[in-house]
Automatic annotation (TrEMBL):
Keywords from the named record: Cell membrane, Membrane, NAD, Quinone, Translocase, Transmembrane, Transmembrane helix, Transport, Ubiquinone
NCBIfam families: NDH_I_N, PRK05777.1-3
Domain NADH:quinone oxidoreductase/Mrp antiporter transmembrane positions: 123-417
Annotated source species: Sphingobium boeckii
EC number assigned by the record: 7.1.1.-
Functional note: NDH-1 shuttles electrons from NADH, via FMN and iron-sulfur (Fe-S) centers, to quinones in the respiratory chain. The immediate electron acceptor for the enzyme in this species is believed to be ubiquinone. Couples the redox reaction to proton translocation (for every two electrons transferred, four hydrogen ions are translocated across the cytoplasmic membrane), and thus conserves the redox energy in a proton gradient.
Superkingdom of the source species: Bacteria
GO cellular component: endomembrane system; plasma membrane
Family the UniProt entry places it in: Belongs to the complex I subunit 2 family.
Membrane topology: Multi-pass membrane protein
Recorded catalytic activity of this chain's protein: a quinone + NADH + 5 H(+)(in) = a quinol + NAD(+) + 4 H(+)(out)
Name of the gene: nuoN
Stretches that traverse the bilayer: 6-30, 37-57, 72-92, 104-123, 160-183, 203-225, 270-289, 296-317, 323-342, 367-390, 402-422, 443-464
Protein name: NADH-quinone oxidoreductase subunit N
Cross-referenced InterPro entries: NADH-Q_OxRdtase_suN/2, ND/Mrp_TM
Amino acid sequence: MNYVASLMMSLPEVILGLGALALLMVAAFAGDTSTRLVSWLSVALLAAAGVSLLGPAGSGGEAFYGLYRADAFAAFAKLLIYIAAAVSILIAPRFFEKREALRAEYPILIVLAAVGMGMMVSAGDLLTLYVGLELNSLSSYVLASFMRRDQRSAEAGLKYFVLGALASGILLYGISLLYGFTGTTLFDGVAVAMKDDLSTGELFGLVFVLAGLAFKISAVPFHMWTPDVYEGAPTPVTTFFASAPKVAAMCLTVRIAVEAMGPATDAWRQIVIFAALASIVLGAVAAIGQTNIKRLLAYSSINNVGFALVGLAAGTAEGVSAVLTYMAVYVAMTLGSFLCVLQMRDDEGNHLETIQSLSGLSRTRPALAAALAIFMFSLAGIPPLLGFWAKFLVFDAAVGAGLWPLAAIGIAASVIGAFYYLKIIKTMYFDEPAPAYRASDSYIESGLIALCALIVSPLGYFLIPVLGLVTMNAAIALF
């Protein structure tokens, strides 16, 4: 095997890994005064990793004896991950400065998490999958409790760690079962073993692996950590959790379902359909009574994972393409929503999280209210916003695969979800004004909100031809 070729295929992870170690030394010697410099250098690293996808890292094929895949599917997922990670770094300094918790380790932890996520979406082996997932998880546990003097943040980190360790154990047990009954950890080898009749041991392994991955994408019934962690973690960290790791875990689930368990589609499809419907319904119903905007967006993310799983349940190239399109639009909607949450500050600069504080926002901050309304309508899947197109694609893929009852129930359940999004819009536009938020003094946040709003607006439909071509090309790489 040519190790130089393999290293070129894994160049994004090499760039981020070596860069993170170098930045760690800068942070160690220069201290927290170097935070802004380290942050910008981290963004530059992520940009460099993204550019490297234009070479062998985006279409090179198998590396390291099949342990690693450099294909169009992984390249698309990594691009979304790097964009979400970069935004999460850019919005952090202003938030942490107010709380005197600005530390140079924050951007480095996100870069290290990005290395793990890159390995996840490029995994060609069950052990590569596990190593990448754990590298991402270890960084995430620290990020969740980053404000260690804040009780909510410390509690969020502890809950995430305990439940994450449980999920990792379940996943590792599933991997051991698949290895024991198929004799290999390579995805291709597992697929070959499953072409014959699925044995009871392989079936149990399949169930345990999907259960472990369901925790990472916060699908029902493994969603219990999501609202508490989203609420307790610092808002920039919550922004990160809701976007990049969600994309990585969803794309990893798609890859392992299609590549490793493709011959057993009928077995895992039942699990995916249950998780999809349960996530859509619970995410919609549980969000209705929430008073904290971050908890509401946590249930919204559970709801959206359910819709993405509808595309996976189809088990076709069109279904995978729909999932990728959905995740791309979801990242834009989620980043925009959390950027709006970061703007919720009183006169003294303290961050507010109650939905009630949004009352009458259309009269005090009309531009912010309009942007948040666009994101809420798009998350609800209301045309002509781009969120509608994403939902249409996953339901169309399900119908194309003969799963019209799943599509019908999903469409009906999406009406429930529209209620709590519309409740926020009603609060902003029809309730008596609450004390006005402090005017925005961050051009970065304002610019990113405007960009995300533009993407999910009707103008975003001009992106559909390109997005459709890229996602279908990525989906075909798995088949």
